[in-house]
Amino acid sequence: MDVTSKTSEVPEEPAAAGATAATEKVWKAGRLEPMPIRKLPDAPPSLHILGPTVFLVALGVGMGESYMWPRLVLVFGPDIRWLFMVGVTLQAFVLLEMARYAMATGESIFFGAARIFKPLMWFFYAAAILIYMWPGHLSAGAAAFEEVTGIPWQVTACVALVFVGVLFSLLSVIYTFLEKLLGLLIGLLVVGTSVIAAMVGSWDDLGRTVSGMFAFGYFPDEAMTSVWFPVVVGSIAFAGPSGMQQMWYTLQLRDSGAGMGAHIPKIRGLRAAGEAESMPSRGFMFDTEDPAELAKWKGWRKWVTFDALLLFWGITMLVTISFTVLAMSAARENPNVASLIEGGDRDAALKAMSDAFASAGSPILGTLFFAFIALIGLNATLGLFDSFSRGQADMTYYFVPGAKRFSMSRLYAGFLWGVILFGILILLFGPADGPAGILDTLAFLSTFAMGAYCVVLLLTNNMLLPKKIRPGPVRNVIIGFGAVFYLGMLFYCLFRFGVAVG
Amino acid sequence: MTDLKQLAQYCLPAASVGAAAGLVAGGLAAFVGQPAGWAVVTGLLGLGVPLALFGSGYAVLVALGKVPAGVFAPAAVYWVIAFPLALLVHAVVMEWVVAGTPGLPAEPWKFLAFRALVSMGFAIGFLWMHEQIGRLWWPRILDRNQYARRTVEQYVHLAAALQARKAATGRGGKKRVA
């Protein structure tokens, strides 16, 4: 690996500069263009709650928290939640390490992967298309909306797809709007679930939920069967952001101007694509030999740690605790719910939790539960479509020959409308969740991508960053554990039971 | 000197977050065909009013400079007390509606302790929405409201720091060569 241990003096863009005498410091990282040294901006105050993690929370608080884990609790009891605790805590560390590379360079983790070994990046490029072209998340939210309104879910899903496309195309600066909209939706979700959990739950439910998070090692025999083990593995992968969502977070960090991302222009909507600034062909590095710059770096780490712990870990935990408390109330209201789920009634968990809401005082709260699921579906749709288009546009722009003649905004719009049109075709003419045979492969790819990005993180942060800002041994061990955790469970599942992930 | 009218005006975003929680429940009650009276009592009066009042209390503290705007820790401390009390009012009102006489829930200390723990989630959501709505409301009234003006100044100061950061890094609209 061609990585210098310190910055060196080389000409900047010699072809453009016409071999003039202009030189500047650069940081050589991997096999691609070196990163010019620029000033690191000052970090914002770390205590204000609005940051780019809003995206990760929007993506992370999804069906795993509201459906898959409560379902496991209904079947195996709250002690199974220690696995959720491990999954989400691991994801918080992944978030911090993803942020390390993105904030130090202004580059996405995809660019970092390409600096290590280009086929790594192409793997993520292909995996993103295979995983996220199916409109499964949207279907779930639309189905819940049908429970509330009676409007057929295909209609809602198609309207939502077109709405998202038009919305993102009309926006001047996509990030700014999306941050506000998701902020409001998540605020509503968090306030709502807290109030409902407070009305429905009890001290004993909460006590059992919280103590279950620390019941390390609890794993009932039934969970080791071919029916449930793949479901458990899938649920662990869906604890917090699953699939490639953490990788896309590095793009949102860049677009929000965090760390060296301040040197990279923002992506604009299609309508304002002509106003977009030209994208630099690589990221930047700051001078890690300068104590003042290192002090600013510590400020940025503090800022992102606050985001990771309070917003990401805290909100994900709170929402899932609320839903688990609801699930336990459901078990009281409907004691045979576990046997219904074990008997293969996949909708029983959702219906039982709706009953739990209703038991708080009136049937309106059962309706409210489905409204929350619909809200989660909308959040996931907005976040995933934006992130998918952003990630694919980023990789296409930098690594597909000739793609630079289109602006990043136009590439973004191309991927966005591509996934929307494919989604509409599938919703109208095909199986909404994608062909059943492919789904297993997609679940496999999603978990495999998570194990793979842990490996990529270890490589990028330890090989591409200057020594002074590399992660310490404890963090490396935790991320290494993540790689073994995801890939190990996945392959065990595959070889022991012959299925990928439930 | 404290101006009550201005304070009330300043508190609208905070009150609206609390009211929203009650309105969602009440609105959905009407939507699924429950009697309007039931919807109003359980949702809006029982829960929305106490949360709106406590929310306004928090906003008053911000307006008077007792706690900083948009910072999490003071909001968490405030709601760990206020949220259980709001739910207690709701439980008493519900008992009144169902049984005809107001009454405390069973094991009131456990009742309060559980809600105090859940309040952390409400505090984050409240603060989050309070900032989002406040950003739309306070700039509209700052000419005639000293508290809104002070809060907006705090945010302008923060924005100025961010702008200075952009300027220092040359991000402010200058075209770059790929």
TrEMBL record, chain A:
Keyword set for this entry? Membrane, Transmembrane, Transmembrane helix
Residues passing through the membrane, by range: 47-68, 80-99, 120-145, 151-174, 181-203, 223-244, 308-331, 364-385, 411-430, 442-465, 477-499
Q: Which domain of life is it from?
A: Bacteria
Residues covered by region (Disordered): 1-22
Q: Where is the composition biased (Low complexity)?
A: 13-22
**What protein am I looking at?**
Divalent metal cation transporter
Source organism (scientific name): Kribbella shirazensis
TrEMBL record, chain B:
**Which controlled-vocabulary keywords does the entry list?**
Membrane, Transmembrane, Transmembrane helix
What is the top-level taxon of the source organism? Bacteria
Where would you find the membrane-spanning parts of this chain? Answer: 12-32, 38-64, 76-99, 111-130
Q: What is this protein called?
A: Uncharacterized protein
Give the species this sequence originates from: Kribbella shirazensis
